[in-house]
Write a structure and sequence with these properties.
homodimer; alpha/beta; Arc Repressor Mutant, subunit A; Aspartate Aminotransferase, domain 1; Aspartate Aminotransferase, domain 2; 3 domains; seven-stranded mixed sheet; 16 strands; 41% helix; globular
């Protein structure tokens, strides 16, 4: 925030300087009107004359121009905003960067069109069902009466909850629309679930590695993460979880059951059943994320843990952000016995989820468009993941390992032990590439030589980027002694 | 959630019974297709024959019908869903109702088209800028490329932040777009602010009475409310707040500075300045809600406390939900020195606010449509509030008092001391009227004989409802001894 001038001397100069700041910082942009003389006089409690003097000064400085009978405008010959910061100046210094800051930087990278996007797990913008879905939204918006734009208070849009309940038959659930609460995406569903079943200081057993967003949620809620060994293909180790539960006070478990992010692991059906029996025996709530469940590459839709839940202890969380559209911000939760608390927490978080996006998705699902869309993108993501996997094998140095997921669109890469993924992130940015360093995927920073790659944007450019990353990793070998990773 | 059958005997009957339940509960509705025989066989791990037997039974029961080469469908002669629950069965028993449950009931009332809406402070659906704004949204959706439907990560949509910064000149702020973080409505902004500046157990000084949603947020975050005397016209008493700060550990202050909900009070400029000086002297963050600031009935746009903030201690929270459109769920926060924390908490809450609604509002503002819309609704709400106020005076018993707000659209009514607002809520529901009992507006339940009325939906029907309420209040007089209010 720019402070207002305080001294009364040369008041008009200070007013001019303040308006000039607002122009330079982008509040008023070339061609836009600045506040009228009367408006500014009233608001700043200064005389009309002072404002006129200030505006004359700004005119002299070439910042604004007057248009007859219309007012003062920012001159359009000004440069259109400031240049983007240079990539190198935003590169993190690993000795000063906390994981929180690193996460926020990797997220910010995701909005930089100048970077090859191998970092944030963002679906390919070409592969979200923009066309038909957006046309449904457009039609709804054109025809919408006032009612449709009111608060869609919890449990949320009924038409959408009916479609979600229908769609849950495939992964093995018998739901009624009343079992579903809609949310603004899956991370909101998970945040609400954790708030419903835990108190600050509680311990939550999680798969490891774990999507960094969820680790940040745990940190923001002052919860402790207990990382359970997790198989790159079969997900959480149920025996290890059993041991942990028997030796620690665990207040909730949290798994990404189908195509875990970043591992791509999928818990086999029998393990899911065993997992639900375990948590049921101990009366521990299980929060289950399933955002990639529809993105299976072959066979049938994997079941969800919720399918085995007869006591209402599983809170199934999902969204349309990975397989349909991220920017609509629509997800849901099947909260079992915690429904009243979840609805109340949803209300206190933001009252309701946006109405029209929910209704558009409901109509898209009812028309069969969602299923058709899923059938087409499954094949594409399967091909992208296979091609990226081959590229990693081809271009990365000996000793590299990579997951073989059967769904989703991310790969988890284990580099040779000498390599450091944060160093690699720093080196890759000036080369125009962003990636997700392994550090972000654990509360105990144990994945120094791992990284997650997003295959969703696979292209010739992405392949070149993978080759460049392989070279950068290989170059790290000689530097190991100068930059110890511990 | 409906449990799956467990015994294997008469398996097809159990499958049929389960599908019948899903039909009765609305997961599959008349005319819709039920899962295919193959799908159900695969998912339940039962034979095709068993599924066929089950579907034949459902056909005999008249629940589904087969369509050649297409599958099984729910028969359309079924009643279209269950009837609405009768109003009298949802009426609360005051001796068993917590404020939390009462709040959720009053919210649910707001979605019941059979009730005269004097309860939740929902703007009139005829007075939200549905037409032009929705056309902008429709155009954006039709033309949208994939990028536009990606995550609009914090601080949120830039075009909207520019408009918000420009619009903040009128209430006295000098903001750059970088000072603003967009949110999913104002309550989310307030929740994020409280999480950014407080820890569980901390005390927050608030105006009293206070909008019940904010009290619920405090409860959900395990914060304690310290209620400060508040004048029905001038808002929070700064001397009383000063005394409280000097005698209690206060971790944050929270005020609805312009047209407080439910009081309609507006803190005078000099008090705002004094308030900011007070919290600055004590380094206490001030969370300022301003959702009704644009809805002034006369004179100029009231300033915000943020206009006097030179230390970044004021977190200004607002939204478009009361003056433009509720269902888009778009708000914002100007978080001052807490910006990095707010962005991080926004990310961990739900990653981002929906993209297209933000962009549509930005274009509507840039076109001047927002200002034109505000000019027209201000006059209407001023007239509605005046008419409702007169009706309360005319129809309510002697001893009733009512606020005289200069903005917003709610009235705060003090009934004679014998009256009980929860009893009135119970009596009004069967008469088809919903209102907001005073109990909801305080953590200490001190407003037993107060109620908030929403004037936004003023109509001939609403006037009749106010008259009926007046009669019901008058009838309570004789019952006082039978139903003591303490």
């Amino acid at each position: 925030m720019i402070e207002q001038p305080k001294q009364e001397a040369f008041l008009y100069e200070q007013v001019a300087s303040n308006i000039a700041d607002l122009i330079r910082q982008g509040t008023f942009r070339p061609g836009e009107r600045v506040p009228s003389v009367r408006q500014l006089s009233r608001q700043r409690k200064i005389s009309i004359t002072t404002v006129l003097q200030a505006y004359m000064l700004l005119e002299e400085q070439g910042l604004i121009e007057t248009r007859p009978q219309s007012g003062y405008y920012v001159r359009s010959r000004l440069a259109m905003g400031l240049p983007e910061p240079e990539i190198s100046t935003t590169a993190p210094d690993p000795t000063r960067v906390s994981v929180r800051e690193l996460v926020m930087m990797v997220l910010e990278d995701s909005t930089n069109p100048g970077l090859i996007q191998l970092g944030a797990a963002i679906p390919n913008p070409e592969l979200i069902a923009a066309g038909k879905l957006n046309r449904i939204l457009a039609k709804l918006a054109r025809e919408a009466k006032g009612e449709i734009n009111q608060y869609d208070i919890p449990p949320g849009n009924e038409a959408l909850r009916i479609q979600i309940a229908q769609h849950a038959v495939e992964p093995g659930c018998n739901l009624t629309p009343a079992d579903v609460v809609t949310t603004s995406g899956c991370l909101e569903a998970i945040t609400l679930s954790l708030r419903a079943v835990c108190h600050p200081g509680d311990a939550v057993a999680i798969e490891s590695p774990m999507y960094f967003g969820i680790l940040q949620v745990l940190e923001s809620l002052d919860l402790r993460a207990l990382e359970i060994p997790t198989h790159p293909r079969d997900g959480i180790s149920v025996p290890a979880l059993k041991f942990a539960i028997e030796h620690n006070p665990i207040h909730a478990c949290l798994v990404l059951s189908n195509f875990n992010n970043p591992l791509g692991s999928c818990i086999p059906d029998e393990n899911k059943q065993e997992l639900v029996e375990l948590i049921t025996d101990h009366e521990i709530p299980l929060i289950e994320g399933d955002v990639c469940g529809e993105l299976y590459f072959s066979g049938t839709r994997p079941r969800v843990c919720k399918a085995y839940d007869h006591k209402g202890l599983v809170l199934l969380c999902s969204s349309f952000s990975k397989d349909l559209v991220s920017g609509y911000r629509v997800g849901w939760i099947v909260p079992g016995r915690f429904k009243a608390t979840i609805e109340w927490l949803k209300y206190t978080t933001n009252v309701a989820t946006a109405s029209l996006p929910q209704l558009a998705i409901a109509q898209f699902m009812a028309s069969g468009g969602y299923d058709r869309h899923l059938r087409s993108i499954r094949r594409i993501y399967a091909s992208f993941v296979a091609q990226m996997s081959q590229a990693v094998m081809r271009y990365f140095p000996q000793g590299t390992r990579v997951t073989r997921p059967n769904g989703g669109f991310v790969l988890w890469v284990q580099l040779p032990d000498y390599a450091d993924s944060l160093e690699l992130y720093k080196q890759a940015l000036p080369a125009g590439i962003t990636l997700a360093p392994g550090y972000m995927f654990s509360a105990t920073q144990q994945y120094h030589n791992f990284l997650r790659l997003n295959a969703a944007w696979w292209s010739y450019e992405a392949e070149k980027a993978v080759r460049r990353l392989g070279e950068l990793v290989a170059e790290q070998e000689g530097l190991t002694e100068k930059h110890p990773t511990s």
